[in-house]
Amino acid sequence: MPYKIAIASGKGGTGKTSVSVSMQHFIRKQFTNQVQLIDCDVEEPNDILFFPNAKKKNSKIITQRVPKIDKNQCNFCKKCADYCEFNAISIIPSIKMAKVNSSLCHSCGACLVACEQSAIKETEQPIGLMNFYHEKNHINLIEGELKIGSAMQTLVIKEVKKQASKQSQIILYDAPPGTSCPVVETISDVDFIILVSEPTPFGLHDLKLMVELLKELQKPYSVIINKAGIGNRDIYTYLKQEQIEILGEIPFDQEYATNYANGSLLKTIPQKISKEFEIITDKLIKRVYA
Amino acid sequence: MMEMTILSGKGGTGKTSITAALSGLVQSAVLCDNDVDAADLHLILHPDIIEEHAFASGWKAEIDTSKCKRCDICLSHCRFDAIHTNAAEKLVINPFQCEGCRLCERICPEQAIRSEQYTNNYWYVSNTRFGTLVHAKMGPGEENSGKLVTQVRKKAKEIALTNQKEWIINDGPPGIGCAAIASLTGTDLALIVIEPSKSSLHDADRLIKLIESFKIPVFALINKFDLNLELSQSIANYLKTKNIPLVAKIPFDKAMVHAMINKQTIVEYQPNSNISKEIKKLWHKIQLSTHTIDLHPTI
Questions:
Q1: What percent of chain A has pLDDT over 90?
Q2: Are residues B180 and B113 in the same domain?
Q3: Please, what is the average pLDDT of chain A?
């Protein structure tokens, strides 16, 4: 079984993506080629921007099962609407209306069980894409991409995660920001979580929310402090108080920030940063084989 | 009354710092934090809470193992893989995977499953030095962020109408998913914050496609524009092709972080800085242009 690591943060913009992309790079360099990166930030997948030469190998459409009511079979008993906890079905017997609002449907299948007339069938509706990228010795990336206008992030993440290669030794998930359902879906089956935070009041506040979530989920984690040097020291006090391990500190560096902005993050990594990532990778590998 | 939502496809571009700065400039406004998942605006506005409300986040099912006969009908019907066997070979439900569809409860022949409504989300009405703030706190791992956004916006609108305020300013969530959709539905205009990075532009492009489907006027600003002049220029060109007015170019300045640490808006912290001047200009431009926007076109 591959060892699964999620890179999460609570807050957006702390550097999840740059840490994810760099971790894949350094694990490959120091340890194994069998490391796969899965971009689970399906609303805004960005990992691929850091591999300008990568080729898309193929794409697959991700669909969601949405019920369709056959009005010829329907007797407008409303049982399906009663069963639907998401208010996705409206039935008005007097005008023989039976309608499904697909944007509210969670594809739970309750309406199918409810219907005694066998009037409901499911159809497949596209909600996103998964894209497979490959570049010899450099990248092994699967990306989930939510269809614009769809609100089914969690389903897209679930499908994308199923695509992970069994041959991988390590799988890295780049998680979405926040602490709600898409993040929970991403980290549900991981062995370890890296939380990326920045030493600012916003960074600390959102890190605390994430720690609260991980305590409830009872998952092991530690923290990378990104952009170290900006902000203040409150985050260090907090981590010490909570006895949370600092896996590493990536200093704020103008050149590195510019490389990030250009998408050329891996082309020239400033020495003080690559050194820090090498140490972090060593610590991680020890954990994988503990 | 007009309602503006501040968004950015990508997180960390500075939405909240800009929203906070605008909060101090808009004379007659109700403020609303729509980023219910990682609400940060209160860190600058330090609100005095005057109302607290629990908000149901949906149902979670639970199996009474003493009644369960292991027919496994629920297990075969659950599409969210939320039902598992534990070490004692009993069926249990993982509350984090349960979507609250209640199908298992309905089909259990032993009536061994019950669902309970979780109220782990809260929303608040508060007083701040810039006026009323409506905000929320979601329980970790909770669902329904879209519905919670709709709730806080509804309350903000009520307050704005009762008190005859001219504006509602929404600090939006990152992304383009349910929370972003719920933040945009029915607003009068959107302001997008973009920073000069490829990922920020990529995300803004996806966000703009979403906003286009709502057919509402959009303004954009580039934050930290001088970190990469070339990319800032490409963003400006891109906005031109989309006919989106670029209302401000805000320079990078560590003062923005210092203001945050000081729990102040940048306009309070350094009123005469370039950033503050740009933000004042931007607000002026938005106000001017709203006179020419037909907010409620007749069809």
A1: 87
A2: no
A3: 94
Look at residue B124 and give its three-state secondary structure. Answer: strand
Distance of CA B288 to the CA centre of its chain: 26
> Which among A105, A129, A180 is the top mutation candidate for probing chain B, defined by the most B β-carbons within 10 Å of its own β-carbon?
A180
Q: Is residue B299 part of a domain?
A: no
Provide the domain limits for residue B105: 58-118
Looking at the domain assignment, is residue A123 inside a domain?
no
Facing residue for A148 by CB, picked from B107, B199, B206: B206
Per-residue model confidence (pLDDT) at position B295: 53
Q: Say if residue B299's pLDDT is above 50.
A: no
Do A206 and A255 lie in a common domain? yes
Beta carbons of B142 and A180 less than 8 Å apart: yes
ipTM score of complex: 0.91
Q: Which residues constitute the domain of residue A226?
A: 3-62+128-289
Binary contact (B180, A43; C-beta < 8 A):
yes
The answer on A258 and A229 residing in a single domain is yes
Count structural domains, chain B. Answer: 2
Instruction: Report the alpha-carbon distance of residue B32 to residue B45 in Å, rounded.
Output: 11
Residues B150 and B114 grouped into a single domain: no
**Are both A196 and A95 inside the same structural domain?**
no
Mean pLDDT value across residues A205-224: 96
How many interface pairs between A and B have CB atoms less than 8 angstroms apart? 169
| B207 and B8 Cβ atoms separated by less than 8 Å | yes
Query: What's the CA gap between A70 and A174, in Å, rounded?
Result: 41
Given a contact cutoff of 8 angstroms between Cβ atoms, the answer to whether A44 and A212 are in contact is no
Q: Indicate if A171 and A269 belong to the same structural domain.
A: yes
User: In A, which residues are within 8 Å of B96 by CB distance?
Assistant: 184, 188, 216-217
B298 has pLDDT over 90: no
Same domain for A35 and A110, yes or no, is no
Q: What is the pLDDT of residue B202?
A: 95
B263, A108: Cβ pair inside 8 Å? Answer: no
Are B141 and A231 a contacting pair at CB < 8 A?
Answer: no
- DSSP secondary structure string for all residues of B178-239: HHHHHHHTT-SEEEEEE-SSHHHHHHHHHHHHHHHHHT--EEEEEETGGG-HHHHHHHHHHH
* DSSP strand pairing (A55-69 vs A120-135): antiparallel
pLDDT tens digits, residue range B138-186? 988 887 788 999 999 999 999 999 999 999 999 999 999 989 999 999 9
pLDDT value at position A135? 76
Pairwise CA distance, residues A178 & B38, whole Å: 6
> Looking at residue B102, which CATH number applies to its domain?
3.30.70.20
Q: Looking at the 3D structure of chain A, how many domains does it have?
A: 2
Q: What is the mean pLDDT of residues A167-175?
A: 96
pLDDT digits (tens, 9 = 90+) for B236-281: 999 999 999 999 999 999 999 999 999 999 999 999 999 999 999 9
Specify the pLDDT at position B203. 96
